[in-house]
Design a protein that fits this description.
single chain, alpha+beta, 14 strands
């Protein structure tokens, strides 16, 4: 019994000893909190069946879906958001990730069912995935404002854009992952901001990650409802949002960021509504947001692959303690 007590006491003292070691090494300053646990997120518009890309609904070698499965295995994200994905590709991606040893549970939302390249059901939309099991059914909230139609197979169909949200856990913490593929109508992101500000839909104590191809640039008015800060002389909109964005602290882009980004000339500025371009035309229109009340230390990285007209966007944040 005495030996068991001594072993338990020794194990309990290990975290304290580690903190002491970090203090002595200067890694953590005395009185400061050690860094929170890391959250990794991937976002990609895979151009799964659009005519301007070569994927055409396929899932095999040489497609964006196969590339995404490869990159997920390599980067091991906690959360994943995917735009322009056929339902058949969604099913195939889950199977590919399981085979590659990085199983993720996903949810799919159909934006329209009029894309012949997507196969028998012609279903095209967006998806979100979590490394941990979802803790409740995902919910899709369509935007009220949309005049967009997709014409194919001799008929026109209304495009049902919206926000897909799935509750899950990361590092034993509750998190809600939301994905979207909004259009150019500004009222869509205004409505998204209203949803995120609703304490009944998104309780203030629950971390939220919001990712997607939003088809708006950082200095456009609808983004003021998402970003929690304003920087740069071109930024004339008061921010009302809850979020930090993955690439907002990368000084490389403060003065020469994507077309339509905010220019931040003040050397004292720590973050800027800007970032690396994410689309082939040089604009930043893809985002990975995380609630400022729950995360800090945002970092963003992009990598271009030939299978899509958008970059693969990788983000990391640290949980606040």
């Amino acid at each position: 019994m005495r030996r068991r007590y001594q072993l338990a006491l020794a194990l309990a003292l290990v975290p304290l000893a580690l903190v002491g070691l970090l203090l002595r090494s200067g890694t953590v300053k005395e009185g400061a909190q050690p860094p929170g646990e890391l959250l990794r997120v991937l976002e990609w518009n895979i151009c799964g069946a659009a005519q301007n890309c070569s994927n055409r609904g396929s899932t095999g070698v040489g497609t964006s879906l196969a590339r995404l499965a490869e990159q997920v295995q390599f980067r091991t994200p906690d959360l994943l958001s995917v735009n322009e994905i056929c339902h058949a590709q969604f099913v195939a991606l889950q199977a590919l990730l399981s085979v590659r040893g990085w199983r993720m549970e996903g949810a799919y939302a159909q934006m329209h069912d009029n894309v012949p390249a997507c196969g028998s059901d012609s279903s095209y939309g967006l998806a979100v995935f979590s490394r941990e099991p979802l803790t409740a059914p995902a919910q899709y909230r369509p935007f009220a404002s949309t005049s967009e139609e997709y014409v194919a197979q001799g008929r026109a169909e209304r495009v049902r854009r919206g926000v897909l949200c799935a509750p899950t856990t990361v590092k034993f913490r509750r998190v809600v992952l939301c994905g979207a593929h909004s259009g150019t109508e500004p009222d869509q992101l205004v409505q998204a901001q209203e949803w995120f500000a609703d304490a009944e839909l998104f309780p203030p104590d629950v971390p939220v990650v919001f990712a997607g191809d939003l088809n708006q640039q950082p200095n456009e008015a609808p983004l003021a409802g998402l970003y929690s800060h304003t920087r740069g002389e071109k930024d004339t909109y008061e921010p009302r949002g809850r979020f930090i964005e993955a690439d907002e602290s990368d000084r490389e882009w403060f003065r020469q960021g994507a077309a339509g980004g905010v220019r931040c000339d003040d050397p004292g500025v720590a973050r800027c509504r800007n970032g690396a371009p994410t689309a082939d035309d040089g604009r930043k229109i893809d985002y990975i947001f995380a609630t400022e009340a729950h995360f800090n230390s945002p970092t963003g990285r992009t990598e271009d692959f030939p299978e899509s007209d958008h970059v693969l966007y990788e983000a990391s944040f640290r949980f606040l303690r």
